[in-house]
Amino acid sequence: MIADWVLIVLVVLAVVLATAALAVALSRRPAAAPTESAETGDDRQRAAVVANPTKVAPGTRAEVTLVCVDLGWREPLWLETTVDDPGTGQTEEALRQGVDVVLACGGDGTVRTVAEVLAGTGTPMGLLPAGTGNLLARTIGTPLNSIASATRVALSGNDRKIDVGRIRVDDEPDDRVFLVMAGMGFDAAIMQNTPEALKGRVGPLAYVISGLRAIRGRRTRVRLRFDDGPLLDRQTRTVVVGNSGTLLGGLVLMPEAHIDDGRLDIVNLAPKGIPGWIAVAGRVITRTRRGHARVEHWQAREIEIEAESPQPSQLDGDPIGDVSRLSIRVESSSLVMRVPIPPPSDTPDPG
């Protein structure tokens, strides 16, 4: 009996000693590194700005900071892109910092790079348009001519989930993304052959000048497949796959395209000569599917485009060189965008 009590006392003593030892060990462990807000005691919301310094006007940073402070946010985390890193590492750093929204400040290329990282994370993305095209900004209604107004939308607008296009180029191992349009042929040749200096001088008119130079080019043959459908052989001047139908100047190439419908729209343009282009232009201006027999439309979730020879190609207006094959799929509702209140339709801003 005494032996039993002795055993019980020893067990209890061992538990007490073990507990004490554990407490001492925990007290000696280095404390977890506090977050910046814990260090400063500042629990206000914070935005990160991924900015392309070649596009940002003087005073932009101060203007964005003023709006943040005015709305009760902390000063923004400012991260500039470089030639070697056009926004990927900067956006990843913003996510590591735990910011509440990431603002892409630059042209369509900067927007696309930031979106590629944010897609699927749930962290909202805002736009501070600073490029020539600003295609997504036109689609969602972000103010184009006021950084202060665009910042207010990015901080206090509505959240809208939009689709993202995923694209595999030739035999590249990794997907790229696009938010508005990907194209092969005439449209990409325009983007590829428009000098930056000309865009700086005359703005969007530079694309018109480049287009007039390229309009007399020849058609080429492509093979198309949509979802699990049959292969289609077509002559084309350009094949465009759109998440949105927005063009510059308030024109809409794909009237039925919407950035949150879970589908991509495809248009094949195959006009022959100047009269054909005039008819195609009339169809675009009137926003109908009618106007010329050389205009075809489809909708699909997966698209394959293969050209008989490498063709100029582009993603959201950024040339990606001459390619032979594009494999494209839609990623539905994967990117959270900050849009004006109330959210606009997909009718573009004519500004």
TrEMBL record:
Pfam families on file: DAGK_cat, YegS_C
SUPFAM superfamilies the record matches: NAD kinase/diacylglycerol kinase-like
Residue ranges occupied by any DAGKc domain in the UniProt entry: 42-171
Keywords assigned: ATP-binding, Kinase, Lipid biosynthesis, Lipid metabolism, Nucleotide-binding, Phospholipid biosynthesis, Phospholipid metabolism, Transferase
GO molecular function, a single term: kinase activity
Family, similarity comment: Belongs to the diacylglycerol/lipid kinase family.
Lineage: Bacteria, Bacillati, Actinomycetota, Actinomycetes, Pseudonocardiales
Required cofactor names: Mg(2+)
Species of the source: Pseudonocardia humida
UniProt name for this protein: NAD(+)/NADH kinase
